[in-house]
Amino acid sequence: MLARRGMVCSSVPIAAAAGVEMLRLGGNAIDAAIAAAAVLCVVEPMMTGVGGDAFVLLGSAAEGRVVGLNGSGRAPAGASVDAYRARGLGAIAPGGILSATVPGAVHAWETLSRRFGALPLATSLEPAIRAADGGFPVTELVAHIWDLLQRLGALRNDAARASWLAAGRAPRAGEWFRAPGLARTLRQIAEGGAAAFYEGDAARAIVAASREHDGFFEMDDLARHTSTWALPIATTYRGVEVLELPPNGQGLAALQALNILECFDPAPPSSALGWHRRIEAVKVAFADRAAYIADPEHAQVPVEALLDKGYARRRAALIGERALEGVAAGLESDTTYLCAADEHGNLVSLIQSLFTGFGSGIGCGDTGIVLQSRGAGFVLEPDHPNCIAPNKRPFHTIIPGMLRRDGRPQLAFGLMGGDVQPQSHLNFVANLVDHGLNPQEAIDRPRFRFQGERQVAIEAPQLRVDEGGTLGDALAARGHTVIAPGEAMADVFGGGQAIAIEDDGTLVGASDRRKDGCAMGWWG
Question: What is the pTM of this model?
Answer without folding.
Answer: 0.96
